[in-house]
Fold:
Amino acid sequence: MSQELVLSAYVFLLALFLGVEVIGRVPSTLHTPLMSATNAIHGIVLIGAILVAGTADTPLLHALAFVAIVLGAGNVFGGFAVTDRMLEMFKKKPVEKR
Amino acid sequence: MITDARAAFIDVAYLASAILFILGLKRLSSPATARHGNRLAMLAMTIAVGATFLDRSITWSPLNIGIILVGTVIGAAVGIYFARTVQMTAMPQMVALFNGMGGGTAAFVSVAEFSSLARAGTTIGAGEALSVAAGTAIGALSLTGSLIAFGKLQELISGRPIRFPGLSAINAVLFIAILALGTVLVGFNGGDLFVWLLLAVAMVLGVLVVLPIGGADMPVVIALLNSFTGIAAALTGFVVDNQILVVAGALVGASGGFLTVLMSRAMNRPLTNVLFGAFGSAAAGPAKAGEERPIRETTPEDAAVVMAYASEVIIVPGYGLAVAQAQHQIRELADELEKRGVRVRYAIHPVAGRMPGHMNVLLAEANVPYDQLFEMEQINNEFAHADVALVVGANDVVNPAARHDPSSPIYGMPILNVDQARTIIVLKRSMRPGFAGIENELFHNPKTVMLFGDAKESLVKLTNAVKSA
Structure:
């Protein structure tokens, strides 16, 4: 049990470092879209909601899982849609000139 | 080691998803590839969620299927509807709203998982209990904090800092209560009553922490809460033992945190100031009252003549432009000026609008060419030889007090050197102070002329006047 937690902790820490490195030199033009995209990505927690819903066996748990799924799905779909709409406006740009 | 083919398949799918998330983020940080990056992240999400449906722990009873499908459809419909219909100017509060939803999910998943484990009589290890406690607290704080941020930006509640006596004492007590409840859960095997209490206390704290922060600082707050939700998602990954949750959550937690730092750096406001409110308290004491300083008002015709016969005009768009939805009108004005041989450029302050990059998105929507948009560092020395600086609905980012008045709450924030231009034309709705709630001495500069009115109407009048100039 706790071995799995330690493994998760490793993954967690490595992903933390990666998260900073990977967006390292983002221009300020992209701060809002990037924030919006990462906002959509943490909607991944929907998976947690699905797993909880799949094992729920009391009315209370069912209700909790339902609320969690609605919110999580809103986060994922809304987040990606809004980001895509923001980035759509960058498409006509010819070539990055700097 | 892995004997279960289905479990192995899920693991491989999660691995692929993790790689796609990382590549997607990488591509998202460059303008040319950003949209593709977002698509990669969507693909990663689809793979991860799809693979989860194969998980053996899911019991496919009709009720469970119903909850999962109906819940997803409702959430998706609401999310997509808002994302599609919202005005571009309202994007920041949309991000806040979706962020709150994610935070809520993380909190409720943690609570549900804990009470289901507790009911099953499983001994909950300290590690799991800690993940549950932290995931619940951070997720709940992010939920209500984001909702308050949404309310402030949507102007459902005042954008001004809201404070009352004893607020910090209450917050301190709530914070200690969270630590205490966490300790009970981790150290003393507390039952699920304590998780519910923790959820409630953290939700109240989320409200009280964001209320006293001024509207101008909301982007930084949203970025920070975004990072929090990422961490909360990763913590739920610890609880339900799911690596893709850990990876994606941590990626968001870290990149969101980094973005928060970038943003507060662009505003030259240490994060502690944002959170514990130097802005707010200073803004409460308004500029020396009773002191009537002169301003010069102009007409669209006069202002148009100045611009029409200029050789260099630098446009400084601000939040007022966004509110008035005037990005198309400003482009028409710029086109008209260019027809007359005037060189037009745009100076974009890093925090123009309500979020860094917000202004670029709006101007791009109006098809303003990219090579006319300049960031602050690139253009700040150019103001000295510009004939006209046209300030449209910007205020705090052009306030010279940031440069020389240590008593000003925005002292030290890098600003656009608008006051160095030969003439400064300011389009503004009224003399009301900006988001930071402070007086702007630029408006009293002898080189400044003010054109009052709605930005969109003023720009239309200016454009017509330029045509006939």
Notes: The helical segments of chain A are 2-22, 31-41, 46-55, 59-88. The radius of gyration of chain A is 18 Å. Chain A has a mean pLDDT of 86. Chain A touches chain B through 89 residues (CB under 8 Å).
